[in-house]
UniProtKB/TrEMBL annotation:
Highest rank taxon of the organism: Bacteria
Keywords, in A-Z order: Magnesium, Metal-binding
Signal peptide: none
Protein name, as recorded: Mandelate racemase/muconate lactonizing enzyme family protein
Any GO molecular function: hydro-lyase activity
Entry annotated with the keyword Glycosyltransferase: no
GO biological process terms held by the UniProt record: carbohydrate catabolic process
Stretches assigned to the Mandelate racemase/muconate lactonizing enzyme C-terminal domain: 148-245
Names of required cofactors: Mg(2+)
Amino acid sequence: MSATIVQVELLQVDLPPRVPRSDAIQSFVMQETPMVRIRCDDGAEGTGYAYTIGTGGSSVMALLRDHLAPRLIGRDPAQIEAIWRELLFATHATSVGAITSLALAAIDTALWDWRCRRDGQPLWLAAGGAQPRVPVYTTEGGWLHLDADTLVSEAVAAREAGFRGAKLKVGRARASEDVARLAAVRDAVGDGFELMVDANQCFTAAEAIRRAPHYAELGIAWFEEPLPADDIGGHVRLAASTSVPIAVGESLYSPGQFAEYVRQGACGIVQADVARIGGITPWLKVAHLAEAHNLSICPHFLMELHVSLCAAVPNAAWVEYIPQLDEIAASSVRIEAGHAIAPDAPGLGIEWDWAAIGRRTVARALVS
């Protein structure tokens, strides 16, 4: 007999970052973490989540509480694709966009967690099982507010800790400032350590085209979010002007948006974010879209989920290290010899600390 969803618990858990995080356009002041916990008539459960970097959490919770969670009651949780598509069309007036995608992701990841637990499989095997370990790079020591000496010490420490690379934020007022910071780090870590740069959409196309050759001289692995995400034409011109791969994705919210970037040759690295695209179901579609076009996927943030998804597909090249759930999870991402190891436990691979979650919950609702 199939299971039936009889109750949905909604939680918002607020988590302050352990270290200050800033880039060219914003500061990451609070991780709002909407969580969805589905319960079925046979006692089985599944837990999913999404995140914001400080705004919109209450809106995600309202969308879940008032419009999406009620549609789950009485449904068979095994019908993940059908549920995701029905919820997408039920929110047609607010799709495609961040709030809706984050709400869909919290539900979709809960359904996948339920399925994997039911089947006794870890997510990385259930979703494809392509590679049990993926190279890992860190972003935690590369924030824009840090001075050059700190960037250097953080990068050297990351190399010594076994990371294969580090991402540095760019977007200082003058190109020379960015270059000086990058050059200091490159001199310190050598050519065998990958460096990525991330502008967080702060440049015009003309300015990005002007700066890209200077970054390229330092052997960077990619130039991330150089322009506003809706400037596809600018990305096309930039990609054609430089040998540096252009990386995009954290501010795209549907497989269709990724398809247009790929179709126009506007990116060389795909960085789908499982929360911002609406869950595991659409993330896998984008990963295989990239694979079909001989592109790597190097997802943004959410390392606790992305380690399993990267292990599921053959074209994932990197996992980004930014600890996100340490305060509310008893598990953590295992790193060995510069690689993130896919967890073997059934489900998403996250062991939730429900007592800690209870202490940090700022909003809660039950739908049945």
